[in-house]
Design brief:
Length: 457
C-alpha cells in the first residue's frame, strides 16, 4: 500500500518543456502524472507528464536504499499523480536531451485501477467506454492534440473578428420561442412558465446589429436532434457572426478570410500537434468555390433521378458531385431556409423537375434566397444569409411558415426603429474541427458530448 501525501509546501520549479540541457546538474521539482512506465528489472523509466509534455525520470534500484523511491515508483500505476525532486542529467537518447534522477518523491494521488485505455497509443476502444471516463480519456495524446488545436481556433476567431471591428456579445440561452424551426426544442421550467433552451442566437444577434453593427458570439446552441449521427450533438458550440450594411456575398468573403486566418494560426501555433495527428493543412485558395443550389441539383439529377429542385441535399449524395475541401452552396430555395432569410426575388433561372410544392402559387415562379452553406466535402460547416430587415416582409414570411407573429412581438417591434440591412452566419465549432483534423465522430470534437443517449458525464 502506498499512502498519498499532501502537496504541503512543494511547488513545481519547472514545466517539462523547461527542463533542458541548460539545467544539467541542477535541482528541479516536477509535478505531473505517470503517462508511461518501463520496468527493466533494476531500472525504471517513467514518463512524467504535465500540460506541456513528458520528462523522463530514471530510478535505479541500488541507488535508492534511503528513500524507497524505486519501490514506490515500481508500485504506482499509470495515471497516478506525483511530485519529484531530483537532479537533471544529460541523456542523449531522451527527446529533450535530459532526464531526471529523483531523490525525493511525493505521491499525491494514487491511481488504484488500471485504465481501460492507454495514454500513448491510438485507442481502438469504443467511444462509449472512453466517454464513461472522459477526463481520463482526454489525457490521451490524440485528444490532447485535438483540444489544443480547438483552443487555437477559438483564440484566432476572436483575434480575427476583433481586428475586423466586431465586438463579442452574449445573448440569452433561456428563451420564449423557437427561432430556427426544424430542429426540435428542449423545453425547460422557467419559474411558472414554459421556456426553451436557445437553438441559436439568431434573432438577438440580428437585433444587436442595430446597436453595435458588427457582433459575434461563441456559445452553446441546444437542439433536440432525434437521430443518432456522427455530426449532430444536442449541445454544440456555435460561432455566430452578424454584420450591418452588407449582404451574403460580403459575409462569404469574410468567412473565407476567417477560415484562412484560422488555418494560418494553427500552422503557427500547433506544428507539433499537427505532426502528431499526421495532418497537413494545405494553403487555402480563396475565395472558396461557390456553386448554386440549382446547378448542383442539375448535376445530381443525372445520377439520382428522384431528386427534385426544392429538396434538401443529403451529405451522402453530395459525395458524387463534389470532391474534398471547402466550397459553398449558394442561393437555396427560399422554402428550405428559416423565415428571417431574405429572398433573392423571383428567379428566372431554368429549373429542371421542380418539386411542385416549392413553386409559389401566385405567379408560378420559384423563390431563391440570398443564402449559403459552407461545406467541407459532404459536411455542412456553416449556414449564412442576408436577413430580412423589412417588418412587413418578415411578418409575411412568418405567417407563411406557420409561425405565430404574436410570439415574436418582442422581436418584430424592433423593426419599427430602423434596423439596418444585415447578414451573417452560424459556424459549428465542432464541425470545423472535424473537417480540419479529419475527426470521424463529432463526439471527439467536444469535451463532454450530449446526445439523445447521453446526459453524463
Ligand atoms: P444540419 O443540416 O447539418 O443538421 P442545420 O442546417 O440544421 O445543420 P444550422 O441551423 O444551419 O444547422 O446551424 C448552423 C451551423 O451550426 C451548422 O452548419 C452546423 O455547423 C452547426 N450545427 C447545427 N446543428 C448542430 C448540431 N446538432 N450539432 C453540431 N453542430 C450543429
Ligand atoms: Mn444549415
Amino acid at each position: 500500500m502506498i499512502t498519498e501525501q499532501d502537496l504541503g509546501d512543494w511547488r513545481r520549479t519547472h514545466y517539462s518543456s523547461q527542463v533542458n540541457d541548460s539545467q544539467i546538474g541542477q535541482l528541479t521539482v516536477l509535478m505531473g502524472w505517470i503517462s508511461s512506465k518501463r520496468d527493466h528489472g533494476n531500472v525504471l523509466f517513467i514518463q512524467l507528464r504535465d500540460r506541456f509534455g513528458d520528462t523522463q525520470i530514471v530510478a535505479k534500484k541500488e541507488k535508492d536504499l534511503e528513500n524507497n523511491i524505486f519501490e514506490v515508483l515500481k508500485n504506482l500505476k499509470e495515471h497516478s499523480s506525483i511530485g519529484i525532486k531530483g537532479k537533471v542529467v544529460g541523456q542523449k537518447k531522451s527527446p529533450n536531451g535530459v532526464e531526471v534522477i529523483p531523490h525525493e518523491i511525493k505521491v499525491l494521488s494514487v491511481s488504484t485501477k488500471s485504465a481501460p485505455f492507454l495514454t500513448q497509443s491510438v485507442s481502438t476502444i469504443g467511444i462509449d467506454t472512453r466517454l464513461e471516463l472522459r477526463a481520463l480519456d482526454l489525457r490521451r495524446n490524440y485528444l490532447q492534440n485535438v483540444f489544443r488545436i480547438r483552443f487555437t481556433i477559438l483564440k484566432s476567431v476572436r483575434e480575427f473578428l476583433t481586428k475586423n471591428y466586431f465586438i463579442e456579445v452574449n445573448t440569452p440561452k433561456m428563451i420564449s420561442t423557437a427561432t430556427e424551426g426544424g430542429a426540435a426544442l428542449f423545453p425547460i421550467f422557467y419559474y411558472d412558465k414554459e421556456a426553451f433552451l436557445a437553438q441559436s442566437p439568431q434573432l438577438y444577434k440580428e437585433q444587436l446589429t442595430m446597436a453595435f453593427e458588427n457582433v459575434f458570439e461563441i456559445a452553446p446552441i441546444f437542439r433536440a436532434e432525434p437521430s443518432r449521427t456522427n455530426r449532430h450533438l444536442s449541445e454544440a458550440i456555435s460561432i455566430d457572426v452578424e454584420k450591418a450594411f452588407v449582404n451574403y456575398y460580403d459575409i462569404m468573403d469574410l468567412l473565407d478570410e476567417l477560415i484562412s486566418y484560422i488555418i494560418l494560426r494553427i500552422k503557427d501555433e500547433n506544428p507539433n500537434e499537427l505532426k502528431n495527428l499526421e495532418i497537413e493543412l494545405s494553403e487555402l485558395k480563396i475565395p472558396f468555390p461557390r456553386y448554386t443550389y440549382s446547378e448542383l441539383i442539375d448535376k445530381l439529377q443525372k445520377n439520382h433521378k428522384y431528386i427534385r429542385w426544392g429538396d434538401d441535399i443529403s451529405p451522402k449524395i453530395l459525395k458524387d458531385v463534389i470532391g474534398d475541401g471547402f466550397y459553398y452552396i449558394v442561393d437555396w430555395p427560399l422554402s428550405t431556409k428559416p423565415f428571417y432569410v431574405k429572398s433573392k426575388g423571383n428567379s428566372d433561372i431554368a429549373i429542371s423537375k421542380p418539386n411542385p410544392s416549392f413553386v409559389t402559387s401566385e405567379n408560378n415562379s420559384i423563390m431563391v434566397s440570398e443564402s449559403f452553406d459552407l461545406m467541407y466535402g459532404p459536411l455542412e460547416l456553416s449556414s449564412g444569409s442576408t436577413r430580412i430587415n423589412n417588418k412587413s416582409v418578415l411578418l409575411d414570411n412568418m405567417k407563411k411558415k406557420g409561425l405565430n407573429p404574436a410570439a415574436f412581438d418582442y422581436h418584430l417591434r424592433i423593426f419599427d426603429y430602423g434596423i439596418p440591412p444585415h447578414a451573417g452566419f452560424g459556424l459549428g465549432l465542432e464541425r470545423l474541427l472535424m473537417a480540419l483534423l479529419k475527426i470521424e465522430n463529432i463526439r471527439d470534437a467536444t469535451f463532454y458530448p450530449r446526445d439523445i443517449d447521453r446526459l453524463t458525464p
